[in-house]
Every structure is written in C-alpha cells, then in structure tokens.
Amino acid sequence: MNFFPKLIFSHFSRHFATLSKLPNNFTKIPSKYRPQAIRDAQQALTDYLHCTRYIPFVYAEHIAKNSFFSLSSLISGINFSTTSFNRNVLRFLRYHPINEYEFFFESIGIDYEEVGGLLPSKKFFFSEDETVLEAACALSGFGFPWNKLGKLYKEEILIFKASSKELKARLFKIKECGFSNIPVIGICLAFPYVLRGGGVNELGGEIVALLNDLKRVFLDFDLGNHVEDNVDAWYEICRKIRVFYDLGCEKGKIGELIGRNKNLFLQYPEEVLVSKIEYFSRFLVPKEDIGMLILRNPEILDSNLETPMISVMGMLKHFGLSVEKRDSVAKEYPYVLGRNKMTNLPNVMRALNLHEWLFDRIKNGNHRLLANYTLNDDEDLDKGFRDSFEKIQFSRTPVHTMEKLMFLHRVGFGENSLTMKVLAHVHGTGSELQERFDSLLGLGFEFSKLCRIVHMTPKVLNQRPETVERKVNFLCHEMGVSLDYLDIFPAFLCFNLEKRIQPRYRFHKWLTENGLCTRNYSIASIVATGEKSFIARLGRIHPDALNEWFENFSYKESDNSIQD
C-alpha cells in the first residue's frame, strides 16, 4: 500500500471512518484494495468528465477527487478487478451517464446527505445549464479552494447564477480596496454576500460599509501583516470578525474598535469567543451589547466563567447591590440562595429577575469583578443541603439523582435545603426535566416566575410538555385567564384536564349562564375542591344541579386523582 499517494490514502481513511454511509456493495471490496478502487475510479471519472463531457481537465479532476460518496455509490455496482477496474468504470460510464450535479455539489464541500435536496429537478448534465459550473470555474481560477465553494453556494446561491464576467468584476472591485487575492478569498468565504453585488460594476451599500471596516482593520491597523499568507488563516480571522456583525454590530462603525483590539482576533480561538458570547447571551440582553462588551474589553475572554463556585448573596454584594435590596432578595427568593457555579450565574440572575441589572454592571466598566470574585471556604454553606447531599451519595440511584440536582442548579436553584425539597418531588432524568422546563418557557412563562412555580409546586415538572400545553391553552383561551394567574394557583397545572378542570369549569359556566349560581367562585375553588365537598356544594347551589352534573358534565370514571 506504500505506493499509493499519501493524500489519496489519507482522504480514503478519513471517509471510511463512517462506513455506515457507504453502499453495501462497495464495502464488500477487500479493505486492502479499497484505496486502489477509489484511485482507479477517480481517474476513470476524471477522464470521462474531460474527454466525454468536455469539462476542462483541472475541474474534472477537482470533481472526481472530491466526490467520495457519490463515487462510492457509482462503483458499488461494478465488479472489482485489480487489473482492469479503471477500464470497467469507463465502460460503465459509457452506458450509464451520471447526474453531474450530484458529483459537483459534493465536490465543492456540501455534505453528501444534503446534496439530494439541491439537485435540479429536470437537469442532469452541465450542458443543460452551465451557469453553476462556470461560476465555480471562475472562482477556482481566482484561487478559491474548490472544496470550499460549497460555503458560498449554501449561503448565497445567487453567486452561482452570475456570469464569470460579473464575478470577476466583483472580485476586482474588492481587490481595489487594497487586498491581494488570498485576503479577498478569505473575506468572501467569511462574508459570501460581498460577491452578491448589485450589478457588474457596483457593490451594495452594506458591502461597501463592511469593506471600509476591513480596510481599516487589515490595512490601517496592520492586522493583515499578522495573518499567515494562506486562505485558511484569512478565512479564520475573517470568521472571527463576522461573529460581531452577526451579533448586530453595525457595519462601517466598528472597524477602528476592531483594529485597536486586534490581539483579540490573533490570540483567541473562535471557540473561546463563541463560548463567551453564548454565556452572556443567557442574560437575555441585546446581542449587540454582548459584542460591544467583548470588543471593548477583550480581556474578559481570559475569565473562567465555568468552574468557580460562587455565593449568590456574595456575588450580589460584590457587584454593589444595596443591603436593602439584598434583604428583599433573601425574603422573596430563598430557593435561589446559597452556592452555585459561575457557569449558572446568568440563570441564577434570571431566577432573581436581576439579569439585566447585573449585565449592565458588567457592561458599564465592572467586567473585572467577574474575574476577581473569590469565595471563602466557609462562606454560604448550608448544613441542610450538605446533609442531604451526602445521603444522595449512598442512595440507590446517586447518578440519576445528581442529574436532577444539576438541572435545578442550572435553572437557578442554589445549594440550600429548599432545593433539596424540590428535588424530592421532581421525577424524570435531568434532560427530561430540562425539556419540560424549556417547554414551559416556550409557552410564555417568565423565567423568574417559572422558578417560583417549580419551588411552590415541583410536580408541575412531572408532566409531558404536550399535557401542560393543553392545560395552558384551556386556561388562557377557554377560561380567558392570563398566565399570571398561575402565580397564585400554580397547582392548577397538576390537575387532570379531561377529568377535573374541563368538566367542573364548564359546569360552573352553565350554572352561571342559567342563573342557578350567583356566587363567583374562583378557579382554585372550582378545581381544587375535593370531590365530596364539590358534590355537597352543588346540592346547596340548586336541587337540580346534581342531576345535571352527573348526566351531562361529570367524567364517567372515578375522579380522585389530581395528577395526569
């Protein structure tokens, strides 16, 4: 196997890490011959595309060398021979033309599983519409890596509907800003819309504003001289810059700020940048504010915002919340207090409804307080929590219980005895509880109020999301009550909709509409009253009420269970 080119074998080995994607017949080829089969098939396909389909050799070779799964599917029906496989493939292609677009789309870097959705419905050959191939050839001729063109296609398909003349004109306009070919390629891959253009010789206003920023950054502030002279390096640095525009920072306005903080883009991997953005995004503040916070204070990327332990009350004091307000927090949100992890701080603050306050403090010059916060060894330790925590370690299901506890910490519950009481009443895995919590947020519950509901009525989280959704819809649409009512009566969500809530509410509505009941009973009184007391009440309301209830409204089975 040593005589095979290393590049081919590396390419082959990488793809065979996912054998499940390969056709069954192809995997039947003995493993020691598979590199040869791929090499022979690539050469045969290159010859076919060039000699039979008249595609320029260099582009035919690009397509053949970069369409591994399409090629594997093609040769899966051809008998393998160590001496004549190339000829066998060529012979097969003479009588079984391929869908050239399928091979093309995979070759430019589009995932094979996505290719089917991109194929033209009534076109098979490039000769039927050469626009896409011509655009790719023009871009490749400028220097774009062939297998990265898919990034442009997926984000700006209009690029591949432009003529080669139009594309060359747009690329030349970008070069006129002072960039050579490699920087232009990196810019285009990170910002594909710059090639969209507005015509042959014009660029849109948004594009001009972006290019002005990039000129300021790379030329005026000399960031370009710190970037290696290859496409990957320029694409990487431009991708980091794009992160801030995606956050909403205005094009044409932040070039100088980026330039003055160029080390941010040279020193920190994109993953670090994205992780910090995701962290601050959990404060539910405008994304542009997050971008400006990091641009103005790049040292915040050095902060460990994941593993340190914090005291909730200590953190509030550290950031300057007054004694009076801290006392109010302690009374209103006791289940949030105690210790937690720094990574959960955004949700802790949301549970306290102080997330905007804290982010404003961070944004307005206090970001260093995150990095220099320290927790004393004996600070804010809750004995009740510690005792319960130790019992978990010796329980029958410590891992399962810890997953549930970690969920509660993630949504803002602190290390305190109240959290342990909630833990004892919630059922399901940590991921199931998170899914149910998120579904309630999706129904319109405010984060802080939802945490209070979970504290007051933990069993709310023991139901399937669709079950709770039906109850919420009934409350809001048929009963005409807002979600705020659940602040008073969260247990509403724990009663059976079909057996308890619907029949009782509709019966009381019938009584009222028919003048049989003049008293205005609350929803809690209608739903939560025990069965015997409820029946006794109906007898007092009107002699005929009981018959009407049992004949036309009551659920026909026993109705003593409140939980679905």
Automatic annotation (TrEMBL):
InterPro entries assigned: MTERF (IPR003690), MTERF_sf (IPR038538)
Give one GO term, molecular function aspect: nucleic acid binding
SMART domains with a match to the protein in the record: Mterf
Q: Name one GO biological process term.
A: DNA-templated transcription termination
Pfam families given in the database record:
mTERF
Entry keyword set:
Transcription, Transcription regulation, Transcription termination, Transit peptide
Q: Which family does it belong to?
A: Belongs to the mTERF family.
Protein name in the entry: Transcription termination factor MTEF18, mitochondrial
What species is this protein from? Gossypium davidsonii (Davidson's cotton)
